[in-house]
Design goal:
Blueprint (H helix, E strand, L loop, with lengths): L8 H4 L7 H22 L11 E6 L14 E12 L4 H6 L15 E14 L15 E14 L2 E12 L5 H11 L16 E11 L2 E2 L6 E14 L2 E14 L18 E16 H4 L14 E13 L2 E10 L10 E9 L1
Antiparallel strand pairs: 1-2, 1-13, 2-3, 3-4, 4-5, 5-6, 6-8, 7-8, 8-9, 9-10, 10-11, 11-12, 12-13
Length: 346
Protein backbone atom coordinates (compact mmCIF):
# COMPACT_ATOMS: atom_id res chain seq x y z
CA UNK A 1 0.00 0.00 0.00
CA UNK A 2 1.29 3.47 -0.86
CA UNK A 3 2.01 5.98 1.88
CA UNK A 4 0.26 9.34 1.72
CA UNK A 5 3.47 10.93 0.41
CA UNK A 6 3.57 8.46 -2.49
CA UNK A 7 0.03 9.12 -3.66
CA UNK A 8 -0.47 10.96 -6.90
CA UNK A 9 -2.31 14.32 -6.74
CA UNK A 10 -5.45 12.67 -8.12
CA UNK A 11 -5.25 9.88 -5.55
CA UNK A 12 -4.48 12.16 -2.62
CA UNK A 13 -7.53 14.30 -3.42
CA UNK A 14 -9.89 11.34 -3.49
CA UNK A 15 -12.33 11.28 -0.54
CA UNK A 16 -11.77 7.55 -0.18
CA UNK A 17 -8.10 8.06 0.86
CA UNK A 18 -8.64 11.00 3.24
CA UNK A 19 -8.68 11.18 6.99
CA UNK A 20 -11.76 12.78 8.58
CA UNK A 21 -10.26 16.34 8.88
CA UNK A 22 -9.07 16.22 5.25
CA UNK A 23 -12.46 14.87 4.13
CA UNK A 24 -14.29 17.69 5.93
CA UNK A 25 -12.07 20.32 4.27
CA UNK A 26 -12.56 18.59 0.90
CA UNK A 27 -16.35 18.67 1.33
CA UNK A 28 -16.39 22.31 2.47
CA UNK A 29 -14.33 23.33 -0.57
CA UNK A 30 -16.65 21.56 -3.00
CA UNK A 31 -19.77 22.81 -1.24
CA UNK A 32 -18.52 26.38 -1.50
CA UNK A 33 -17.73 25.86 -5.18
CA UNK A 34 -21.20 24.40 -5.80
CA UNK A 35 -22.95 27.30 -4.06
CA UNK A 36 -20.86 29.77 -6.03
CA UNK A 37 -21.72 28.14 -9.34
CA UNK A 38 -25.41 28.00 -8.45
CA UNK A 39 -25.42 31.63 -7.33
CA UNK A 40 -23.73 32.83 -10.52
CA UNK A 41 -25.43 30.56 -13.00
CA UNK A 42 -29.04 30.69 -11.85
CA UNK A 43 -29.62 34.46 -11.69
CA UNK A 44 -30.08 36.15 -15.07
CA UNK A 45 -28.92 39.73 -15.55
CA UNK A 46 -32.50 40.93 -16.00
CA UNK A 47 -33.22 39.89 -12.41
CA UNK A 48 -30.47 41.96 -10.83
CA UNK A 49 -32.98 44.11 -8.94
CA UNK A 50 -34.40 41.22 -6.98
CA UNK A 51 -33.12 41.18 -3.38
CA UNK A 52 -31.04 38.30 -2.06
CA UNK A 53 -31.23 37.44 1.62
CA UNK A 54 -29.24 35.48 4.17
CA UNK A 55 -30.99 34.20 7.30
CA UNK A 56 -29.00 32.88 10.26
CA UNK A 57 -30.75 30.94 13.05
CA UNK A 58 -28.91 30.35 16.31
CA UNK A 59 -29.93 29.90 19.92
CA UNK A 60 -26.60 31.48 20.89
CA UNK A 61 -28.23 34.78 19.81
CA UNK A 62 -30.86 34.44 22.58
CA UNK A 63 -29.00 36.93 24.78
CA UNK A 64 -31.40 38.69 27.14
CA UNK A 65 -34.28 36.24 26.64
CA UNK A 66 -35.25 34.84 30.04
CA UNK A 67 -35.19 31.05 30.27
CA UNK A 68 -33.85 30.52 26.74
CA UNK A 69 -31.27 27.71 26.51
CA UNK A 70 -28.42 27.38 24.06
CA UNK A 71 -26.81 24.49 22.16
CA UNK A 72 -29.87 22.26 22.37
CA UNK A 73 -32.56 21.03 19.95
CA UNK A 74 -32.64 23.20 16.79
CA UNK A 75 -29.50 25.13 17.62
CA UNK A 76 -28.15 26.50 14.33
CA UNK A 77 -29.23 27.02 10.73
CA UNK A 78 -28.58 29.16 7.69
CA UNK A 79 -30.47 29.91 4.47
CA UNK A 80 -29.41 31.76 1.34
CA UNK A 81 -32.45 32.91 -0.69
CA UNK A 82 -31.91 33.72 -4.36
CA UNK A 83 -35.13 35.07 -5.94
CA UNK A 84 -36.02 34.96 -9.62
CA UNK A 85 -38.56 37.28 -11.24
CA UNK A 86 -39.61 34.73 -13.86
CA UNK A 87 -41.63 31.53 -13.74
CA UNK A 88 -39.78 28.46 -12.49
CA UNK A 89 -39.35 25.44 -14.80
CA UNK A 90 -42.05 23.73 -12.75
CA UNK A 91 -44.29 26.81 -12.75
CA UNK A 92 -44.11 27.01 -16.54
CA UNK A 93 -45.69 23.56 -16.70
CA UNK A 94 -48.20 23.86 -13.86
CA UNK A 95 -49.36 27.46 -14.39
CA UNK A 96 -48.87 28.06 -18.11
CA UNK A 97 -51.43 30.88 -18.34
CA UNK A 98 -49.80 32.93 -15.54
CA UNK A 99 -46.89 35.18 -16.61
CA UNK A 100 -43.72 35.90 -14.67
CA UNK A 101 -43.84 38.85 -12.28
CA UNK A 102 -40.83 40.71 -13.70
CA UNK A 103 -38.14 42.58 -11.80
CA UNK A 104 -40.52 45.36 -10.69
CA UNK A 105 -43.08 43.00 -9.18
CA UNK A 106 -45.48 43.07 -12.14
CA UNK A 107 -49.26 42.98 -11.95
CA UNK A 108 -51.23 40.11 -10.50
CA UNK A 109 -51.78 37.36 -11.24
CA UNK A 110 -48.13 36.51 -11.80
CA UNK A 111 -45.57 33.96 -10.68
CA UNK A 112 -41.93 33.87 -9.60
CA UNK A 113 -39.62 31.50 -7.78
CA UNK A 114 -36.69 31.29 -5.39
CA UNK A 115 -33.74 28.99 -4.88
CA UNK A 116 -32.95 28.40 -1.20
CA UNK A 117 -29.69 26.79 -0.06
CA UNK A 118 -29.80 25.79 3.58
CA UNK A 119 -28.40 23.86 6.51
CA UNK A 120 -30.00 22.77 9.81
CA UNK A 121 -28.21 21.56 12.96
CA UNK A 122 -29.77 19.75 15.93
CA UNK A 123 -28.06 18.76 19.18
CA UNK A 124 -29.03 17.00 22.43
CA UNK A 125 -28.93 18.63 25.84
CA UNK A 126 -25.74 16.78 26.75
CA UNK A 127 -22.45 17.31 24.90
CA UNK A 128 -21.08 13.86 25.66
CA UNK A 129 -19.98 11.56 22.86
CA UNK A 130 -23.14 9.46 23.26
CA UNK A 131 -26.32 11.31 24.30
CA UNK A 132 -28.00 10.09 27.47
CA UNK A 133 -31.09 7.90 27.33
CA UNK A 134 -34.15 9.98 26.45
CA UNK A 135 -32.09 12.73 24.81
CA UNK A 136 -32.33 13.43 21.09
CA UNK A 137 -29.48 12.52 18.74
CA UNK A 138 -27.05 14.86 17.04
CA UNK A 139 -28.39 15.49 13.54
CA UNK A 140 -27.72 17.70 10.54
CA UNK A 141 -29.29 18.45 7.17
CA UNK A 142 -27.94 20.16 4.06
CA UNK A 143 -29.92 20.83 0.91
CA UNK A 144 -31.70 23.09 -1.53
CA UNK A 145 -35.30 24.09 -2.21
CA UNK A 146 -37.11 25.37 -5.29
CA UNK A 147 -40.04 27.57 -4.21
CA UNK A 148 -42.62 28.34 -6.92
CA UNK A 149 -44.98 31.20 -6.01
CA UNK A 150 -48.23 32.31 -7.60
CA UNK A 151 -49.41 35.81 -6.60
CA UNK A 152 -53.03 36.92 -6.97
CA UNK A 153 -54.92 39.82 -5.41
CA UNK A 154 -54.79 39.18 -1.65
CA UNK A 155 -53.90 35.51 -2.05
CA UNK A 156 -50.68 33.57 -2.57
CA UNK A 157 -49.78 29.95 -3.20
CA UNK A 158 -46.39 28.27 -2.85
CA UNK A 159 -45.13 24.89 -4.00
CA UNK A 160 -41.76 23.92 -2.54
CA UNK A 161 -39.65 20.93 -3.54
CA UNK A 162 -36.70 20.26 -1.24
CA UNK A 163 -33.78 17.88 -1.78
CA UNK A 164 -31.06 17.24 0.77
CA UNK A 165 -28.94 14.87 2.78
CA UNK A 166 -28.50 14.04 6.46
CA UNK A 167 -25.53 12.58 8.30
CA UNK A 168 -21.83 13.50 7.87
CA UNK A 169 -22.40 14.88 4.36
CA UNK A 170 -24.59 17.59 5.88
CA UNK A 171 -21.38 19.10 7.32
CA UNK A 172 -23.30 19.94 10.49
CA UNK A 173 -20.45 18.85 12.78
CA UNK A 174 -17.75 20.97 11.08
CA UNK A 175 -20.14 23.92 10.87
CA UNK A 176 -21.00 23.87 14.56
CA UNK A 177 -17.39 23.37 15.63
CA UNK A 178 -16.31 26.30 13.42
CA UNK A 179 -19.01 28.55 14.89
CA UNK A 180 -18.02 27.61 18.44
CA UNK A 181 -14.40 28.46 17.71
CA UNK A 182 -15.54 31.78 16.23
CA UNK A 183 -17.40 32.79 19.41
CA UNK A 184 -14.77 31.34 21.75
CA UNK A 185 -16.75 28.36 23.07
CA UNK A 186 -15.64 24.75 23.46
CA UNK A 187 -16.54 22.51 20.54
CA UNK A 188 -19.22 19.81 20.99
CA UNK A 189 -17.74 16.32 21.07
CA UNK A 190 -20.66 14.07 20.19
CA UNK A 191 -20.95 14.32 16.43
CA UNK A 192 -19.58 10.80 15.95
CA UNK A 193 -22.96 9.60 17.25
CA UNK A 194 -25.09 11.65 14.84
CA UNK A 195 -27.98 10.24 12.82
CA UNK A 196 -26.81 8.37 9.72
CA UNK A 197 -26.70 9.55 6.13
CA UNK A 198 -29.96 9.57 4.16
CA UNK A 199 -31.13 11.35 1.02
CA UNK A 200 -34.20 13.49 1.65
CA UNK A 201 -37.12 14.67 -0.47
CA UNK A 202 -39.97 16.85 0.77
CA UNK A 203 -42.88 18.59 -0.97
CA UNK A 204 -44.70 21.47 0.73
CA UNK A 205 -47.82 23.30 -0.42
CA UNK A 206 -48.53 26.61 1.32
CA UNK A 207 -51.06 29.40 1.01
CA UNK A 208 -51.93 32.76 2.52
CA UNK A 209 -54.84 35.18 2.21
CA UNK A 210 -54.80 38.80 3.41
CA UNK A 211 -57.63 39.29 5.89
CA UNK A 212 -56.73 42.95 6.50
CA UNK A 213 -54.29 44.99 4.44
CA UNK A 214 -54.02 48.78 4.29
CA UNK A 215 -53.22 50.79 1.19
CA UNK A 216 -49.54 50.46 0.26
CA UNK A 217 -49.22 54.28 0.15
CA UNK A 218 -50.41 54.76 3.74
CA UNK A 219 -47.94 56.11 6.31
CA UNK A 220 -48.86 53.32 8.74
CA UNK A 221 -49.35 49.90 7.17
CA UNK A 222 -51.15 46.95 8.75
CA UNK A 223 -51.44 43.39 7.45
CA UNK A 224 -53.23 40.44 9.06
CA UNK A 225 -52.80 37.24 7.05
CA UNK A 226 -54.02 33.70 7.79
CA UNK A 227 -51.44 31.16 6.55
CA UNK A 228 -51.37 27.40 6.10
CA UNK A 229 -49.09 24.69 4.75
CA UNK A 230 -48.86 20.93 4.38
CA UNK A 231 -45.60 18.96 4.07
CA UNK A 232 -45.10 15.41 2.88
CA UNK A 233 -41.70 13.79 2.60
CA UNK A 234 -38.88 11.96 4.29
CA UNK A 235 -37.97 14.76 6.73
CA UNK A 236 -41.36 16.12 7.81
CA UNK A 237 -44.99 15.12 7.47
CA UNK A 238 -47.20 17.79 8.98
CA UNK A 239 -50.06 20.25 8.51
CA UNK A 240 -49.83 23.78 9.93
CA UNK A 241 -52.17 26.76 10.20
CA UNK A 242 -51.57 30.19 11.70
CA UNK A 243 -51.87 33.95 11.49
CA UNK A 244 -49.20 36.53 10.60
CA UNK A 245 -49.44 40.18 11.67
CA UNK A 246 -47.27 43.06 10.45
CA UNK A 247 -47.33 46.75 11.38
CA UNK A 248 -45.06 49.07 9.39
CA UNK A 249 -44.20 52.76 9.68
CA UNK A 250 -43.39 54.33 6.33
CA UNK A 251 -45.12 51.38 4.73
CA UNK A 252 -43.53 50.28 1.48
CA UNK A 253 -45.07 46.83 1.48
CA UNK A 254 -46.47 46.09 4.94
CA UNK A 255 -43.58 43.76 5.70
CA UNK A 256 -43.70 41.25 2.85
CA UNK A 257 -42.61 38.52 5.22
CA UNK A 258 -40.72 35.76 3.41
CA UNK A 259 -42.03 36.91 0.05
CA UNK A 260 -40.01 37.47 -3.09
CA UNK A 261 -41.02 41.12 -3.57
CA UNK A 262 -39.14 43.66 -5.66
CA UNK A 263 -36.63 45.94 -3.97
CA UNK A 264 -38.39 48.81 -2.21
CA UNK A 265 -36.62 52.18 -2.18
CA UNK A 266 -38.76 53.88 0.49
CA UNK A 267 -37.54 53.47 4.10
CA UNK A 268 -39.73 51.36 6.37
CA UNK A 269 -39.64 50.16 9.98
CA UNK A 270 -41.88 47.30 11.04
CA UNK A 271 -42.96 44.91 13.77
CA UNK A 272 -43.94 41.36 12.87
CA UNK A 273 -45.52 38.46 14.67
CA UNK A 274 -47.07 35.08 14.03
CA UNK A 275 -48.76 32.28 15.91
CA UNK A 276 -49.00 28.80 14.41
CA UNK A 277 -50.28 25.37 15.30
CA UNK A 278 -48.94 22.19 13.70
CA UNK A 279 -50.18 18.60 13.56
CA UNK A 280 -47.16 16.31 13.13
CA UNK A 281 -47.19 12.83 11.61
CA UNK A 282 -43.43 12.42 11.26
CA UNK A 283 -40.10 14.13 11.98
CA UNK A 284 -36.90 12.46 10.79
CA UNK A 285 -34.70 14.21 13.37
CA UNK A 286 -36.81 12.97 16.29
CA UNK A 287 -37.90 9.60 14.90
CA UNK A 288 -34.34 8.47 14.15
CA UNK A 289 -34.52 8.40 10.37
CA UNK A 290 -36.81 7.50 7.49
CA UNK A 291 -34.99 4.83 5.45
CA UNK A 292 -32.93 3.64 8.40
CA UNK A 293 -33.45 3.25 12.14
CA UNK A 294 -31.42 5.44 14.47
CA UNK A 295 -31.72 6.80 18.02
CA UNK A 296 -35.31 7.97 18.47
CA UNK A 297 -37.18 10.04 21.07
CA UNK A 298 -40.41 10.09 19.07
CA UNK A 299 -42.45 13.18 18.24
CA UNK A 300 -45.44 14.83 19.86
CA UNK A 301 -48.48 15.15 17.57
CA UNK A 302 -49.22 18.82 18.33
CA UNK A 303 -46.74 21.71 18.33
CA UNK A 304 -47.32 25.44 18.71
CA UNK A 305 -45.01 28.24 17.55
CA UNK A 306 -44.83 31.94 18.42
CA UNK A 307 -42.70 34.39 16.39
CA UNK A 308 -41.97 38.04 17.22
CA UNK A 309 -39.58 40.38 15.45
CA UNK A 310 -38.73 43.79 14.12
CA UNK A 311 -36.96 45.06 11.04
CA UNK A 312 -35.96 48.00 8.90
CA UNK A 313 -35.29 48.47 5.22
CA UNK A 314 -34.30 51.31 2.94
CA UNK A 315 -32.98 51.68 -0.61
CA UNK A 316 -32.72 47.98 -1.32
CA UNK A 317 -31.15 47.01 2.01
CA UNK A 318 -32.92 45.32 4.92
CA UNK A 319 -32.22 43.78 8.32
CA UNK A 320 -34.59 41.78 10.50
CA UNK A 321 -34.35 40.30 14.01
CA UNK A 322 -36.84 37.61 14.97
CA UNK A 323 -37.35 35.35 18.01
CA UNK A 324 -39.04 31.97 17.49
CA UNK A 325 -40.36 29.85 20.36
CA UNK A 326 -41.78 26.36 19.84
CA UNK A 327 -43.61 24.23 22.37
CA UNK A 328 -42.25 20.81 23.31
CA UNK A 329 -41.74 18.60 20.24
CA UNK A 330 -40.95 15.28 21.99
CA UNK A 331 -41.89 13.73 25.30
CA UNK A 332 -38.55 13.96 27.11
CA UNK A 333 -37.94 17.57 26.06
CA UNK A 334 -37.86 19.55 29.28
CA UNK A 335 -39.37 22.80 28.07
CA UNK A 336 -40.19 24.95 25.05
CA UNK A 337 -37.29 25.88 22.78
CA UNK A 338 -36.31 29.36 21.58
CA UNK A 339 -33.90 30.49 18.89
CA UNK A 340 -33.18 33.83 17.25
CA UNK A 341 -33.04 34.63 13.54
CA UNK A 342 -31.00 37.45 12.03
CA UNK A 343 -31.82 38.18 8.38
CA UNK A 344 -30.03 40.54 5.99
CA UNK A 345 -31.45 41.45 2.57
CA UNK A 346 -29.47 43.17 -0.18
Amino acid sequence: MKSSSELSPAESSSPCTMTRPHFERWMRHRLGLLIGLLSIGLVPRAEAQRPWSVEVDNDALNSGIAGARTDVDYTQGIRLRIPHAIASPLGQRLFRSIPGCGADGGSVPCQDWSLILGQEIYTPLTTRVKPESGDRAYAGWLGASMVTRVHTAGFERELTITLGVTGPLSLAGPSQRSFHRLIGQSAPSGWTAQLGAEPTLDITFAGSADLIRTDAKALLGVRITPVWNASLGTVRRAVEIGVEVAVELGASGVSEWRRSSAVESAPGFYLIGAIRGRVVAGNLFLDGGFFRTGPSVGHLPYVGTLELGLGARAYGLGVEWRVVTSSREYGSQGTAHTYTTLAVTI
